[in-house]
Write a structure and sequence with these properties.
This protein is an alpha+beta fold. Helix content is 19%, strand content 35%. Strand 10 and strand 11 form a beta hairpin.
Length: 377
Amino acid sequence: MNYARKKKRFRALNILAGTIVVLAVAAPAIAQEMRVYASAVVTDEVIRVRDVASGDIGTEPLSAVVTEAPAPGGQRRVDAGMIRACLRDHGVNLARIRLRGSSACLVSRPVALRQEAPSVRPQRLSGDASAPTAGEDEAESQSLRAFLEAAATQELARYGGRAAVSFDADSQAFLDLSSPPMTFRLARRTGAVPGPATFEVEVSQEGRVLQTVAVKATVAMVRGAVVAARPIVKGTIVLPEDVRVESITARSVQQAVAGDPVLVVGRRAERFFAEGEPLDPQQLSAVPIVSRQQVVRVVAVVGGVRLESVGQALDEAAGGQFVRVKLADRPDEPLAGVATAPGVVTIGEAPAAAVAAVDRNATGRSQARPAALKEGA
């Protein structure tokens, strides 16, 4: 009787395992790939597919709204299920889409900034020898130079930098103007951001425009960045003593630099970085916790039932990234799962540990510390 019960239970587990494979299998003929980002930044009120993933699936699906954006200064986690649901609702055949990269994207939204030009309080004209009137505060004095520097700084603040403005010699004659009796309004700004620029400023007195002056300047963007404290060789893991934070002059607002060491420490350099060179997060990779062709432990969780088996990884993946695995008894039916620990791939409903791994990966922290790798060996 004992043998019969064991045999019956074994058959039931086989049936359940087959059900899990049907639910988790993701190996129809894939025609298109989409790569999900680990993190993203949005400034709009909504999060679109193109904000959290990239792929050649057409403009309309990429513009589809996945969910609302977080409040300014907040974050929101967008997982692969939300992306799939959005694509399905917009007519995309999910059988022809394969998601790669991270299994979730942590979306941040910067604090909203005022869009209007900086206000200018009426102040004394430079060189006026008369005494200040009652209620005037000399500490609030602002010249045209300070007005334009404030405007440039506010413009670059949304990109995480501050302005360093150098004015052309031909514009020096206007820079000491202040008010009252004059007030300033930035009518137009042309040129690169950052780079050479022309500020067209209306100079008024008692509500009447006296003239519009064109002030030429070069605007540089200064921002804090993580730089190499010593040469970093390609293929090495970045250590805390390898980096330092200092101010740099950015080439453009799109220049990718890390502002916090936590985004680079523990990651692998994909190229050589010279001493003092800013570290580009896109040129650093997460240390894999699952290697291609590695024998891994496959954990399947469906409906609260947990089954474990042994399989072979078909991809390399860091913590929280998608990875395909094949089981010995189903070599032609690879499964899609998530790397949740060194040598472990989870399919089906990811447990809390897997979600935590995804969240840590989305914030840029390495998922494969040497100690963890040793434990999984």
